[in-house]
Amino acid sequence: METSITTLISHFASFLPLTSSIFTILALSAGVLSYFYGPLWGVRKVPGPPAIPLVGHLPLLAKHGPDLFSVLAKKYGPVFRFHMGRQPLVIVADAELCRQVGIKKFKEIPNRSIPSPILASPLHRKGLFWIRDSRWSTMRNTILSMYQPTHLAKLVPMMQSFIETASQNLPVDNDQDINLNELSLKMATDVIGKAAFGFDFGLSKPNNHQDNDEQIDSFVKQHIYSTKMLKMDLSASFSIILGLLLPILQEPFRQILKRIPYTMDWKFEKTNMNLNSQLDEIVVKKMEDKERGSQDFLSLILNARESETASTKLFTPDYISGIAYEHLLAGSATTSFTLSSAVYLISGHPEVEKKLLEEIDAFGPRDQVPTADDLQSRFPYLDQVVKESMRFFIVSPLVARETSTEVEIGGYVLPKGTWVWMAIGVLAKDPKNFPDPEKFNPERFDPNCDEKKQRHPYAYIPFGIGPRACIGQKFSLLEIKLTLVYLYQRYVFKHSPNMETPLEFDFGIVLNFKYGVKVRAIKRT
Ligand code: HEM
């Protein structure tokens, strides 16, 4: 008996290495499977197209661009799954469900999910856009005072002076192209630079290269490079791609790659460090300036920081730089895209241009500058034109959120940590709310028309929704309308023959025209 037990044990022992290898392989496979399919498990009941392992639906996105979400909504209904690499998103493409996500269930869904391009960039991560929970609410409340209508109204003369400077040397009545994107990006950067930091980048000045502006020029070039690098596709830097496919490896690889010269990660890190140190310099100068007053946003934050203990803890120098930088980013590309879209669309629609010119001419002499109140009350058609332009080319077709706890949306119970994104671009092109959606028709925003009255109140949300909606909405509308009034008081525009048809877009963190908007200016008589 004893011999047979010993034989059995020795027999078993001879299999032990094999058994333990099998266990290791099984455990590894289970680990890999749960890593890849774990995020999917909680949302598996939400419908969606079959996903390719690792890349998910990214190839579909590369093929269709943001139109993909309209295609998927048609096929799968108002709540569907989209896999950004390994990460499943629950996409909500219905106005009432957006109200649920953005407003009614804000307590359960208060933050944005952080995509891999942002994880790779500490500078971007510390802005209001990505911070979370109580840090976000305290910071937002402090910053909000800068966006009160009374403060904004005071910014009109400053905005006007940059608009005038930027338009000073417009080539007129000849065959020279104006790249509207470039022009409006410089102007919008100057405006936000002044409003946010009290700093004049001087980009709108003609021949700005002449006087010691190399540093500023390089700052802005780096800023544009850093923003363009925030891509959400497979042409991004290697660590960002890893973040989409194998997030666990993103940070270790970023740490290695940022030290290897000439990789995209190295260039991105170098650019961000440069930007950071220049921003820190601006912040330190402001901190030391006892006469800084409260005209710009940076001064407001620093004043709050010095007067409240809570703010001192939150507004550490790195967060101040993060928020300052975010303003530069959020306040320039979005505004310049909207301005360029509006001029492009108006130029292609003579009946809209005629009606707009009538309204602008009725306001008064050509050099009369509207106040913030005038812009509110005396330009109803301009308001409709801007709204329709922002519907037609929506700057940010997707708006991100993440659940902080289990929550039900559209009949699906979503676990904590689910990425829920609102497809506001799909809403803006939904024929249910916008009949004939591919038609540029500002009249659809006439408050007295049936289409407007019947529309769901949250079908049109280009600035997002709820407590996390865009903080700069009123600021940017003021700037956009002021610029359009100034331009159309003096000029009309026509498309340049050098403009591509159909238009091509870049899908970065915000939408952009791939080759800019090229127009020619004609002076009004
Ligand atoms: C045409 C111009 C603009 C458009 C279309 C736009 C659009 C948006 C959208 C869609 C969001 C996300 C909202 C949400 O999640 O519900 C957002 C957030 C934000 N925007 Fe804008 N934006 C514009 C201009 C600006 C400007 C000029 C600034 C700053 C001066 C700005 C600063 C911000 C900030 C800080 C947030 C994050 C707010 C928070 O999480 O509390 N935006 N914007």
Brief digest:
This protein has 525 residues and is an alpha+beta fold. The protein is 55% helix and 9% strand.
Fold blueprint:
Blueprint: H1 2-41, H2 58-64, H3 67-76, E1 79-84, E2 87-92, H4 95-104, H5 116-119, H6 122-125, H7 133-144, H8 149-154, H9 156-167, E3 178-179, H10 180-197, H11 214-228, H12 238-245, H13 247-257, H14 264-288, H15 297-307, H16 309-314, H17 317-347, H18 350-363, H19 372-377, H20 380-392, E4 399-402, E5 407-409, E6 412-414, E7 419-422, H21 424-428, H22 450-454, H23 473-490, E8 491-495, E9 505-507, E10 511-513, E11 518-523
Parallel strand pairs: 2-7
Antiparallel strand pairs: 1-2, 3-11, 4-7, 5-6, 8-11, 9-10
Bound molecules: protoporphyrin IX containing FE.
Structure description:
- The chain is 55% helix and 9% strand.
- It is an alpha+beta fold and 525 residues long.
- It has a domain at 126-228 and 295-396 and 441-525: Cytochrome p450 (Orthogonal Bundle).
- The strands form 4 sheets. The protein has a 4-stranded mixed beta sheet with strand order 1-2-7-4, with helices on both faces. A 3-stranded antiparallel beta sheet has the order 3-11-8. Strands 5-6 form a two-stranded antiparallel ribbon.
- Helix 10 packs antiparallel against helix 17 (317-347) and helix 14 (264-288) packs across helix 17.
- The structure holds protoporphyrin IX containing FE (HEM).
- The site of protoporphyrin IX containing FE has 26 residues, from helix 17 and helix 23.
